[in-house]
Amino acid sequence: MQALTSRSKTVERKPMTIWERLYIPAIAKGMSITFGHIFKKKPTINYPEQTRPFSPVFRGLQVLNRDEEGRERCTACGLCAVACPAEAITMEAAERLPGEENLYREEKYAAKYEINMLRCIFCGLCEEACPKDAIYLSETFTAANYSRQSFIYGKKELLIPHPKLQPEAYEKAKGQRVKR
Amino acid sequence: MPRPVRFNLNPQKADTKDHISMVDMPDGYSGEGFFATKLSEVVGLARKNSLWPLPFATSCCGIEFMATMASHYDFARFGAERLGFSPRQCDLLMVMGTIAKKMGPIVKQVYLQMAEPRWVMAVGACASSGGIFDSYSVLQGIDQVVPVDVYVPGCPPRPEAILDGFIRIQDLVGEESLRRRNSDQYKALLQSYGIQ
Amino acid sequence: MHVTLLAIDLALVIEKLILIAVIVTVSLLVAMYETYAERKIAAFIQDRRGPNRAGPFGILQPVADGLKLFMKEEIVPNLSNKFLFILGPGLAMLTAMMTSAVIPWSSHIELFGRTIHLQIADVNIGILYIFGVVSMGVYGVMIGGWASNNKFSLLAAIRGASQIISYELAMGISLIALLMLTQSLSLKTIVQQQQDGLYYVAYQPVGFLIFLICAFAECNRTPFDLSEAESELNFGYHQEYSSMKLGFYLFAEYVNMFISSAVMATLYFGGYDIPFVNDAAFGAHYGQNMLAILQGLSLFLKVVIFIFFFMWVRWTIPRFRYDQLMRLGWKGLIPLSLLNMLITGFIVLLRQYGWHFS
Amino acid sequence: MGLTNETIKERLVQKFGENVSNFETPYGMLTFEAPVQENLKVLQFLFDDQELRFQFLTDLTAVHYPNQPGREIAVVYHLHNLIDNIRIRFKVFTTVEKPDVFTATKLFSSANWMERETFDFYGVNFVGHPNLKRILNVDEMDYFPLRKEYPLEDQTRIDKDDEMFGR
Amino acid sequence: MSVTHFLFWFLSIVAIFSAIMVVVSKNPVHSVLWLIMVFFTISGHYVLLNAQFLAIVNLIVYAGAIMVLFLFVIMLMNLNSDTEPQKNKWLKIAGVIGGGALLLVLVAALKNADTKNQIAQTGSGEIGLIHNLGIVLFRDYALPFEITSVLFLSALVGAIVIGKKE
Amino acid sequence: MNEHQMNEHHIKLPEGSIEKTTTTLNLGPTHPATHGVFQNILELDGERIVSAEQTVGYIHRAFEKIAERRPLYQITPLTDRLNYCSAPINNMGWHMTCEKLLGVNIPKRVDYLRIIIMELSRISDHLICNSVVGVDSGAYTGFLYVMQYRELIYEIYEEICGSRLTTNMGRIGGFERNFNSAVWEKLDKFLAEYPAVLTEFQNLFNRNRIFMERTMGTGGISAERALNYGFTGPNLRAAGVDYDVRVHSPYSSYEDFDFKVPVGRTGDNYDRFMVRNEEMWQSIDIINQAYKKIQEFKGAEAEVYHADAPEYYLPAKEDVYTKMEALIWHFKIVMGETEMTPGEVYHSVEGANGELGFYLISDGGRAPYRLHFRRPCFIYYQAYSELTKGSMLSDAVITMSSLNLIAGEMDA
Amino acid sequence: MPINYYIFLSVALFCIGVAGVLTRRNAIIIFMCIELMLNATNLLLVAFSKMHYANMKVMNPNAGIDGQIFVFFIMVVAAAEVCVGLAIIAMLYRNTHSVDVNFLNRLKH
Fold it and tell me: For every residue of chain B, which 3-state class applies, written as one string?
């Protein structure tokens, strides 16, 4: 086959020298490499006790957002459900009744909002699709569990702590952001 | 866009009580008795620290499992070493990745060849539920062919999530009574999958 | 000096029985902790931490494994020959343990007015005995692999058997060269000969190397682990085994490793001799029992070093292919050991005729 | 680079005349079609011709156009001339009732599995193929899943109505 | 009964039983294993007779090498009890009777031989030890020893030539 | 059964039938050597392979059918799962295909950012492949050494897109966010530390006689056969053909970079191994060049991370909340109702194991009319039986891993 | 031990071997029975050598050693014989797919 480009570079393929045919040198070299590693610092993370910081943009468990006054931001427009490639999101919209203005930010809200965490592929498209800053993915992964039912996360599991009513939990959920 | 909070504080708590139904006490007896309970506990402790996994890794999750085994996460810390592809020798079937309909019978076959006690962990969206692949060729969750003990969501789950699922399995193993595998519920469970 | 096998003396029987029990227990314990060491060394070599959750630093890991294996379901495949299937691991374990009989674990201790030799049997054919038992070791692999009624197992059994037989030859010939120097087959004598002068490894470096390589092959360790190559044959001959039968196979491998390390230490590295110390003088000063304990520890240390070496090699180099393995055995090691034997014989002859080096 | 889309077109027309038609160059790639019986002749010509030398089969697939009666299934070949570095696309159309196309396995070993895949998906019957059977799907499957009339999901599925919601 | 006697009887009974099992086992692999058992017991007898070198060589050569070869061949041919060729029942009985008759004749012939007071010395005697055997072997029997190596070589060549595929 | 019949039974065998002298060995689908899921039915004569028959499709997931139901931006999760070892290359390839169809012009800086990502994922893919060759030849340790540095690559991905393996990275028109300082720091760390590790890895294997003998002369293929079998990528280059999509049809400004195309001579496992190693070195080189070029951008240009294509690229979140026009675009894009150009387009990128092609037919609808992936693995795996014929069982295992077969890509 | 014991044991083993040769049709088993017979002889030889030794040791410390040397040579011959014999059986098996001696008697087929 003729050369197609002028950039080719043939890789090394020397025949073995007599020295190399003895097996010993390469083995000794390899063994010195592996022996050196015994004394190296181990990069292992002792997982349950130690954790590794996730990146600030990590796409983990979904969270439903509230605004500063603790009202749910979701208006049940359905864009997240449309954008979801796994079709894992379902919601039922409801009209806000008078007197619920402190609960919901817009006139419409999601009466039921469920994400099937087993279907979800954590692609982040729902977060991108949301025009109301109502859903985003947090820096934590979804915990494993024993039954399929427990993976249907409803509003109870998804909503963040109320900034006014549960300030400590809210602060905790904010976490200590490491300055980069 | 910065996120207002980083972690959700009310995720589902996994409780082994949801899963294992302990053998009901027979009438007139008060449980397994002290010695048997202690034995159960010790054996549970031994088993949970020596779960040899059979990685049934078909796709992406298998690559993430490699990361779990590798130096950064070191699966071996939990005693889960000696990955074997021989079902006879393994305790934990870790199904990682999409199981197509063509593959389904093979998963079942592998499960059947495993020696009791055996556990199954469905890692990743595809193995647990089919994930995005709601198509003509993909099995929608391996629990259609084998009973699953722990589901690990994520596509693929991070190594931390796989380890988390593994710890859930360990909890389960540690609490399991020695009698469970002979109980009628367990037999009924297997029966529902057409096993035995 | 040889102890007649049939001179029955009740105290001697009890003494030997206790010794056997102790040695078997120690071998099993060592094998148990070899599994732990294997995991830990692998972990350290691979920048990991290894098992650390069962007990402090994971030292209860082997116990957990053992208990789990005991409590696991026994599966005997339907089609296989049940008797042979069960016999296989038993044979493997038996032959692995039998070798320990002739190894001198230390000199003697004096207890209750008796002189107790820390060796089960000082037969004057010690090396031949080891050789005989090792040649028997192939049955565990063969029968287990065949009875599993599985093509992978069968392939592994055939690979393993032919490998062990082939490497036995080179091993034997390399030993002959050693025997020319020692002029005795008794391991105890060989150790005693090394107490004063140099270790035999200094006289027989090539022979030692060949013996070492063959020991790797006989123990089925990487790079000769073709019969249980997990990436090709999926654990090979013990693929169909579950529960404690599998445990026996795994244990047998580690016991084998322990025993062959002990043999190598005995033959080439002075056995229980404490290096750089005049043992006799030491014994005179501190008492025989103290000396015996230290000597036992010295042998143990040598064994540990060998075991570490076994593991170190395992986690470093790739394994051979079947034909390359055979080529190395037949075309590499056997001619080399023959040459070694001839040269040794030549030198021994020269020395007999009064010619000395320098 | 001497070879251009125009020269290829000229050579083809010169050789096959009316039989090659519908020349287009969408996004710079010469595309043309030929009658279904002629496909092997065209491929052979493209392969053997000293000037054209399209000796690398990049891709082979099919497309289903249910709205074009008589030309429902298009088999698309992507060919590559590695020396002059030029790609062409070549299509043949066939009917859905009798989707017989001559196999290119004699010319390209790589066509073997690609044709099997195409058969698996669209039921294109590659005449002369050494081993034309399903490759990706189970052998028992009795329809050609990528044809437009078949839905994405398996119709025999009963697990749709389990407790899993969302569909 | 001394320990020696006890061991002798034990080994003899095991030997005969195993030998019978070699003949009657349906499965060739079982036969091989029983034969190995016979070799072990015979080695035990050698040890009793203080022929230690022969005892161990018997194990190495027979149990360690020859029987492995047998096992190897059987495994390669995948012989088991199903593929075992069976002889006619009458022929079998004839075979057993033939063997038995031979036994009878030999026993009868040897019964009166003048061996009553002869004993085979067990437990002691230096001739079975490797040192003595070696000296005799390499001094008096040096030529036969060398000839055996030629025999081996020819056997090796023969086996390779026969075993080679065309 | 009388005597006569019995004799008959035994005499019958040899006369008529030619006895079978080979053994059938079923490798897979759960065999450790078939890392993903495929099955090889080997006919063995002793340890020699007489013939091999491959079965694929054990994780067929109907990508092409699913793609016909999804708007363009939702296809990225699918391409992620094609070759999951180097998901970003697939993502970028798909986005470039869409951009080609829609006629979006990409700024240079985005091109360079893409090149960094693509070369990183090429490294991570080759690294897995080569270390797995090591694992399959029995040396597990080298695998874990290099895996630590793959973890670094994953951290870089995570900083860019928030995910490790199936990244869903990039958007039509560019990236979803600019690279932050953590990315550059980690990239610096990677570039500084990785060469030493790669050298160490090579020292463990390259000149080790055991490894050389295991790989040299096994699984070889000539250039002609390789081309006929549709080999591309490192496997073709190992056979001696210097075909590289990055050089032949440069995309994403690869023409601005100076790099070599490593080729082998015999196409055997050793050549494949060496070509992959060399490609990793070249990739490091390319990343370094791209890094330099990116640092040359100044001012507003240095912040560009997506094309100016409001029809296809989602507007910034702040604008969505405040500006009506942005909200409309946002809705249109998410619902998949933007204008699609009808037409057909073939675009290929140099995937980690060959020419990864996207054949996209659009009829102007929301989703592709037809999307076909040219999946290199699928095409060259059919040569496996030819590659292994006459070699030994152990060679077959190594050949399988050195071909870098990714089941997800193969079975679509 | 009285030499009689050894004689009768050897004879018994030998006759079992003979019976085996006569009753079995599997060439390999027959071969094994021959080995059994050889071993019976070996045992007898060793016993005789020790008998000789017991009688003559005063005169000749090496009395009877020839018997053991003989056993050694028998083993050598047996090993060589097995080597060739098994090769022949394997070859016959390859050609005829049987190890049945009743079938193997037709050397041409």
Answer: CCCCCCCCCCCCCCCHHHHCCCCCCCCCCCCCCHHHHHHHHHHHHHHHCCCCEEEEECCHHHHHHHHHHCCCCCHHHHCCCCCCCCHHHCCEEEEECCCECCCHHHHHHHHHHCCCCCEEEEEHHHHHHCCCCCCCCECCCHHHCCCCCEEECCCCCCHHHHHHHHHHHHHHHHHCCCCHHHCHHHHHHHHHCCCC
F39 occurs within a structural domain: no
Q: How large is the average pLDDT for residues C11-30?
A: 84
Answer yes or no: is A27 within a domain. Answer: no
What pLDDT, on a 0 to 100 scale, did the predictor assign at position F55?
85
The reply to whether A28 falls in a domain is no
Is the distance from CB of F259 to CB of F244 less than 8 angstroms? no
Q: Is F124 inside any structural domain?
A: yes
Domain coverage including residue A140: 62-174
pLDDT at F112 over 70: yes
Q: Which are the contacts of E116, defined by CB distance < 8 A and separation ≥ 6? A: G2, G4
Q: For G3-104, CATH number?
A: 1.10.287.3510
Which range among A50-59, C30-39, D44-53, F285-294 has the greatest average pLDDT? F285-294
A43 found inside a domain: no
Amino acid present at C290:
M
Quote ipTM for the complex.
Answer: 0.86
Q: What is the pLDDT of residues G26-46, one digit of tens each?
A: 888 888 888 889 999 998 888
Mind listing the domains of chain D with CATH numbers? 5-152 (3.30.460.80)
pLDDT of F142 above 50: yes
Each residue's pLDDT tens digit, A147-162: 888 888 888 888 888 8
The CA R_g of chain B, rounded to the nearest whole Å, is: 18
Among F3, F5, F19, which would you mutate to test the G interface (most chain G Cβ atoms within 10 Å of its Cβ)?
F19
For residue B63, is it within any domain?
A: yes
Q: Do A157 and B12 touch (CB under 8 A)?
A: yes
- The answer to whether residue A98 sits within a structural domain is yes
Rounded to an integer, what distance in angstroms lies between the CA atom of residue A164 and that of residue F325?
Answer: 34
Q: How far is CA C235 from CA B117, B139, C215, F142, F400, in A?
A: 21, 30, 20, 21, 19
Peptide bond into F29 cis (omega under 30): yes
d(CA A148, CA B173): 19
- Total domain count for chain B? 1
Tokens of D99: 């989707």
CB-CB under 8 Å, B89 with C234 = no
Cis peptide before F14 (omega within 30 of 0): no
C308 touches chain A (CB under 8 A): no
Strand partners for D31: D24, D89
> Does a structural domain hold residue B127?
yes
Measure in Å the smallest separation between the Cα of G59 and chain E Cα atoms.
14
Q: Judge whether residue E80 has pLDDT over 70.
A: no
Residue B76 included in any domain: yes
- A30, A43, A46: residue with CB nearest C47: A43
| pLDDT one-digit tens code per residue, D90-108 | 899 999 888 888 888 888 8
When CB atoms are compared, the residue of E53, E56, E75 closest to C154 is E75
CATH topology of domain E1-83: Four Helix Bundle (Hemerythrin (Met), subunit A) (1.20.120)
**Structural domain of B111:** 52-192
Per-domain residue ranges of chain G:
3-104
Backbone angles phi, psi at F17, to 5 degrees: -85, 145
Q: Which residue of F has its CA nearest to D28?
A: F345
Q: Half-sphere exposure of residue C203, counting CA atoms within 13 Å on the CB side?
A: 25
What are the structure tokens assigned to A33, written together?
A: 């490499």
Q: Which residues contact D60 (CB under 8 A, 6 or more apart)?
A: D75, D76, D77, D78, D104, D111, D114, D115, D118
Mean pLDDT of the E67-87 span: 74
Pick from C20, C24, C40: nearest CA to C258: C24
